[in-house]
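Changelog-linked ticket: iron/sulfur cluster example.
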Amino acid sequence: MLKIFGAKETKKSNRLWLDLGDLGDLINPAGPHEQWQDHGLGLLRTILHQEGVLTDMFSTRQCATWDEVRKKMQGYDLLIMNVRSYTYPAAYRAAKLFKEVNPNGMVIAGGMHATVALDEMLAVPEFDRICQGPGEKTIVDLVKDPKSFPRVTLGVGTKSMDEWPMIDRTLWPKPNSWKLNRKFNWPLEPECGWGPPGVATMLTSRVCPWQCVFCNESSYIPNMQRRSVDLVIEELNMLDEKHGPVGSIVIHDSMFFQNPTWLKEWIEKYPRNARKLWPYWAAARADTVRQWPDLFEALLRETNWTTVSIGFESGSDRVLKILNKECTEEDNYFTIDLLNKIGDDLERQGKKAPVFWSNIMLGIPGEQPEDAFKTLRMIKYMRRVMPSISFYAPYPGSALGNQLIAEGKSMMSKDNYHRFPDDEKVKGVDYKFYRELLAGKFDDEVNKGLPELIKQRSSALAGSLIKA
Ligand code: B12
Ligand code: SF4
């Protein structure tokens, strides 16, 4: 049999699933978040394999050069990819390479980018079949017989996430260096500073119902019933038993803190039925924390929710309005005060205080320097925080992204859709100002009105530019 990957992998199928990401991210990664596994790939390959439709797989992240990718692609009839906007440059290049080495081969592309930027993909002849939307009920037929499908297909998903099989995580790519492998805990995922290894990433819900203009995924991800609490716990216990020990969990839901009935059941069952009360990372919004503070507090105290991701985005009402965030400065400060208070109390009891993973955007069109100062002031006010800052990126599919693309102001292109946090992404934004701001050059403005103790915290936050 033909060896296709390293010393271990053997060619088993003529169909190749290519996992997408930056070259080298599974060899010597630039940061921890580049190593997360793709649940879309995991879910669909699991469904395929359960139906006896085998696929080989490797990742661009396991390769050091595009030449290596080209070599590994040789001899396949079919290339399958999950394309998101931020992996579109890699998908575009891979499709071209695949056709060069396999002129009679076919390329099937599905995923978020196919849904939100179909025109862009239609213009590339190498994409033979493009599937928009979810793929659970379409993938098997499409991969078995792509020629029986039109060039563009609308995929069919499941009504509920309870219909999803548990992902066979051994179908995910492995780290491709001895050094990375030592710490990776494959097929679990590596530690990234949020909780102990090995990390189990999970999805309990698929869609966030809010409509922030830089995101609004409810406009392009079909609604789907949340996975039941029992199944989530069952899967975690299975992972711990089979691949563990699990050290902590990352709940990748866009919005974990929604649906109080589900959350109350989680509070009741997770501490009782999970093999261990694993600490976890999960996302909330400042306005809903203010709406349901008791529920939030119970989750923190009783379920070991230790890293609270909140898309604060900005500390200025004016910008929050531009973003249609539906949260106010007051909501943000309410949430910060509440977490500070609970954290102090838990520390007094000798327990670990929860911290914010605080998503922040700078460089939003229409933002004034005073707005940005307010944002940095807000970050400094947080007592326990891991700031995750990036320059606003106009992603297709979002209302503001679509508008800026239509106005010709987006600087993202098929060769560079990249989301490096400090990339320049929108024409007309004064990036020089933002770089100076993050280098701490406007400390006096940022510190205005802050208590003396907080002023002493550094305003130099360039190190918090995070690619995730
Ligand atoms: C988890 C997650 C991450 C994780 C892990 C990413 C990974 N390796 O998988 C992390 C934290 C790293 C991350 C980072 C980012 N993310 Co993200 N992320 C998500 C999130 C919340 C879940 C993804 C997921 O697993 N979904 C569930 C799986 C099952 O869905 P899926 O992959 O789309 O696959 C389904 C379909 O697309 C389809 N399908 C997929 N492939 C194929 C192939 C074929 C052939 C077929 C037929 C069908 C098909 O079928 C699948 C099942 O229905 C989504 C939002 C969401 N709810 O999906 C955002 C999302 C994908 N992320 C997004 C963005 C923008 C980012 C960032 C750029 C952050 C930012 N806003 O700046 C960074 C980029 C990081 C980088 N490397 O540069 C956007 C993408 C927008 C777009 N137009 O593509 C989303 C949609 C969020 C949003 N609303 O803005 N992200
Ligand atoms: S930014 Fe957050 S709250 Fe807003 S729509 Fe997206 S996931 Fe929901």
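Closing comment: Example verified and attached. The longest helix spans residues 329-348. Residues 3-154 form a domain with the Rossmann fold fold (CATH 3.40.50.280).
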